[in-house]
Amino acid sequence: MIGAILSHLDFLDEHIDRLSDAIEEQLGPFATGVRLASTITGVAARTAEVMVAEIGTDMSRFPSARHLASWAGQCPGNDRSAGKRRSGKTRHGSKWLDTALTEAAMAATRTNDVYLAAQYQRLRPRRGHGRALGAVKHSILCACWHMLSTGELYHDLGGDYFSRRDPERATRRLVAQLERLGHHVTLEAAAA
Prior knowledge:
Layout: H1 2-26, H2 31-37, H3 45-55, H4 65-71, E1 80-81, E2 84-85, H5 95-109, H6 115-127, H7 129-150, H8 161-165, H9 167-180
Antiparallel strand pairs: 1-2
């Protein structure tokens, strides 16, 4: 019985290798796009291949990153009428692209000291897991558009981007957190 299972595993490994070779052959002309997309935090080689296969490398079809995100179904809906907000559900896009972006976003949110994880951690308490993950997927897709348009590699902003962007806000938030815990806080400027 074990011999049959092992021979079946060997057959599956050979089949996977053949399919991987066929995928590499088909994506040969798009190797630069795959290499660029795989530099994004959380995007593995196979995920980059799916992204390039679904959106292509010619970004002239999309006037901006927002157009690409809208086409892919990664923008929140906007249904307002008479001052009332109704469903904000995203529209449907490519299910293969959505699955690849979800995997990449989940991997990015579990990485330490990167912008995408900081974005997720910042949004999750207020908006919930699903919407925060959707924002990370949107950011990955926008970064991919910029990289494929310009040919530049991904440059991560860092996990402390939001505190560097507005240090006063970060200070107020931390002081308020300490005061909620029952401490009295007096701030003094650090010696330079």
